[in-house]
Amino acid sequence: MKNKKYILIFAALLLVLLAVPVWGRAGGGGSSGGGGSSSGGGGYSSHSGSYRGGRGSGIAGMILQAGVVFFAASGGSIVLIRKARAARARSRKAMAFYAQMGDNWDYREIQKQVEETYFQVQECWRRMDVTYGAPYLSQELMEEFDSKLQWMQVRGEAVVQRNVRLLSAMPVYAEDHPGEEYDAIWYLIHGKMTGYYIDVNTRKVVRGNTRPEAFFEYWKFVYRGERWVLQEIRQKDEMDIDALSQGTV
């Protein structure tokens, strides 16, 4: 019973702390915008094989494997956050320099708009109403969201979101160009929520996880109509933060 308890504890930690795709979040948990769109489901598989150590050693092995996965994943997140903080420091210096030439580069105002956009865009996705997110999305991303949401309606799916949280939002690359419409900022978004899809007729879960999940995403903002709007979402494993912070996306 004691070994079983340890296994359950490790499993719970893995489910809560690992940054895995959340299908019920904005954009469907896949890429969006200029990076294209993708979607797919994650799954678990189990393999049974013969072993000589008996039940005790098998349980110990499972605990060890869970521990290795847990520490590897959490270690990866720690490295990412450390790199993001360094990139944030560089980005803030760049934004302070750009602010001398354009009044759209005030860091506090940008941070406020990014945080507001995060929650409003998630609500847009939950409502399945692209017009709700119109003030916060570029025209290109609005069209992509609208296409995805219409297809979900054809399939008879609805979004369920609960306990939407923003753990951090850090600028990791900023670029200024002649003409404000070409200015852009990349943010590393660290969020957490419960998000999944249900069949509108049966109310059964068809995609996603009913448990809360954390995630990292890269959000690109561009300046349109006197505010910063979301243009693109990419997943953590689709970008190299070192390359991004150097401007080589």
Structural class: alpha+beta
The strand order across the widest sheet is 1-2-3-4
Give helix and strand order, one letter per element, not per position.
HHHHEEEEH
Give the low-pLDDT segments.
7-22, 34-55, 66-73
The total of helices stands at 5
Radius of gyration: 21 Å
Helix content estimate? 40-55%
Tell me which oligomeric state these chains represent.
single chain
Report the β-strand fraction as a percent range. Answer: 25-35%
Name the average pLDDT: 81
Biggest β-sheet strands, sense, barrel: 4 strands, antiparallel
The first-to-last residue Cα distance is 50 Å
- Count of distinct strands: 4
Shape descriptor reads globular
List the helices and strands and how they pair.
Blueprint: H1 2-17, H2 54-98, H3 107-127, H4 139-154, E1 157-175, E2 184-199, E3 205-224, E4 227-235, H5 241-245
Helix pairs in contact: 1-2
Structural features, described:
This is 39S ribosomal protein L45. Strands 1-2-3-4 form a four-stranded antiparallel sheet. Helix 1 packs parallel to helix 2 (54-98). The chain is built from five helices and four strands; from the N terminus they run H-H-H-H-E-E-E-E-H. The chain is α+β, with helices and mostly antiparallel strands and 249 residues long. It has helices at residues 2-17, 54-98, 107-127, 139-154, 241-245, and strands at 157-175, 184-199, 205-224, 227-235. A hairpin with a 2-residue loop joins strand 3 (205-224) and strand 4 (227-235).
